[in-house]
Amino acid sequence: MTKKGNGGAILVTGGAGYIGSHVVKLLGERGEQIVVLDDLSKGNRDAVLHGEFVEGNTGDEALVSEVLKKYNIQTVMHFAAHTIVPESVADPLKYYRNNTAATRSLLECCQNAGVEHFIFSSTAATYGIPEDASKPCSETLPTAPINPYGMSKLMSEHMLKDLSAACDMRHVILRYFNVAGCDPDGKIGQSTKNATLLIKVAAEVAVGKRDSLCVYGTDYPTEDGTGVRDYIHVTDLAAAHLSALDYLRKGGESTLVNCGYGRGYSVRQVIDAVNKHHGSPINVIEEPRRAGDPPTLIAAVEKIHQTLDWKPVNDDLDTIVKSTLNWEHTLLKREEEGKNAA
Questions:
Q1: Of 12, 69, 113, 116, which is the most exposed, with the fewest CB atoms less than 10 Å away?
Q2: From CA 132, how far away is CA 300, in angstroms rounded?
Q3: pLDDT of residue 342
C-alpha cells in the first residue's frame, strides 16, 4: 500500500490508461494512498506504478461500492472512458454506455459512500465548433458537441454538477485540449493501439510502426493552411489534477476549467518538429478536410491559472515531441526484448 497522504484515499478510475497512469505516477511520488480501478480494455497493468490495483469496470456498482467502502475513499478521479471520435459516430451507444451510463453509476456509488471530492476528465469536444474559432475557447462559451464522444462527456458534466448541488460532494471538471507527450522519466507513456492523436501517430511513422501520416485539410484559414491545436504535455495535465485535488482539499468550490497552454501549433509545425528530432522527413499524405474539424482550437487559460496553483513546465513543442519519440523507441526496445525472451 502506498504511504497515505494527508487528505484520504483516492480512487483513480482508468488509472492504467494514458492520462490516468501519469496522474497515478505523480500521486504516488508524493505519497498519496491510491487505488486504481481499470478493466484493462485499453489500459496496461504495467503502467500502474503505485497503489492498489483492482481490475473491473466503473459501471459495476457492486464492485465500485465495495472498493469505496474498503479503502475509505474520499476523492475520486474519473478517467475511464472511450475517447475515439470517429468510433463514437459509428457506435454512439457504446459511448453513452461507457462514458455516460457508467459515470452515472459511479456517481450514485460516490453519493452513497459519502465521497467528498470528484475530479472529472472532460474534453474540449464539449464546445463543438466555436462560432469564432480565431479566439481562444473560454469556459463561458456555449457547449454544442458535434459528436457522441463530446456529448457523452457533456452529459456527465451535467450529472456531476447536479449531484454536487444536491449533496456535499464538490468537484473540479477539467476540459482537456490536445494531450500529447510522455513521462520525461521514460517509465510510462501512451501505449494505446491504433491511436489517433497526431503527435503519437507521427512518432509511430518515424519509428516505422506506420507507413504514413495523413494530414486532413491543407486549405484552412491559418498561417500554413493546416489546423492549429493547443497541445498540452501529459505530465503538465497530470499536475493539473493534483492541483485540483489540493484546491478541493482546501475547501475550494466546485468549478470547471480548461486545460491547455493558451497557444497553438499547426499540423505542419508538429510534422516539422518530428522531422527535426527524428533526423529525416516522415511520409505524409495530404487528404481533404474532415467534417467537423475547426481550423483553430485553443484554450483560454486565465481561469485555470486564477483558480488552481498550477504552473506548467513542459510548454514547448520540442519537449512534447522528443518525449513522444523517446517513448516509441522504448516500446520498440521492449517488443524486441519480448521476442528474444520468447
A1: 69
A2: 13
A3: 64
3-state secondary structure of 161: helix
Pairing relationship of beta strands 52-55 and 117-123 according to DSSP bridges? unpaired
CB atoms within 10 A of CB 29: 13
Nearest CA-CA partner of 129 in 297, 242, 256: 297
Task: Say how many residues make up the chain.
Answer: 342
SS3 (DSSP) at 253: coil
pLDDT exceeds 70 at position 6: no
Query: What is the tens place of the pLDDT at every residue in 298-312?
Result: 999 999 999 999 999
Please identify which residue in the block is written with the cell numbers 461500492.
65
- Position 5 scores a pLDDT of 53
Q: Which residues contact residue 23 at a Cβ distance below 8 angstroms, ignoring those fewer than 6 apart?
A: 12, 15, 77, 79, 238, 241, 242
Phi, psi angle pair for 71, to nearest 5° = -100, 5
Read off the amino acid at residue 255: T
Annotated catalytic residue 265: no
Q: pLDDT value at position 3?
A: 40
Of the candidates 18, 96, 149, 261, the residue annotated as catalytic is: 149
Q: Residue 195: what pLDDT? A: 85
pLDDT band at 7 (very low <50, low <70, confident <90, very high): confident
Distance from C-alpha of 21 to C-alpha of 19, rounded to nearest angstrom: 6
What pLDDT score does 131 carry? Answer: 85
- Which residues, in sequence order, are CB contacts of 139 under 8 Å at separation 6+? 175, 256, 257, 258, 300, 303
Q: What share of the chain is helix, strand, coil (3-state, %, to 5)?
A: 40, 20, 40
How far apart are the C-alpha atoms of 111 and 107, rounded to whole Å? 6
Q: What's the rounded mean pLDDT across residues 126-138?
A: 89
> Phi and psi of 121, rounded to 5°?
-85, 105
Q: Which pTM value belongs to this model?
A: 0.95
Residues in CB range of 217: below 8 A, 6 or more apart: 225, 226, 227, 287, 288, 289, 290, 293
Q: How far apart are CA 336 and CA 301, in angstroms?
A: 42
pLDDT at 21 over 90: yes
Q: 3-class DSSP state for residue 38?
A: strand
Domain 9-181+231-260 listed as CATH 3.40.50.720: yes
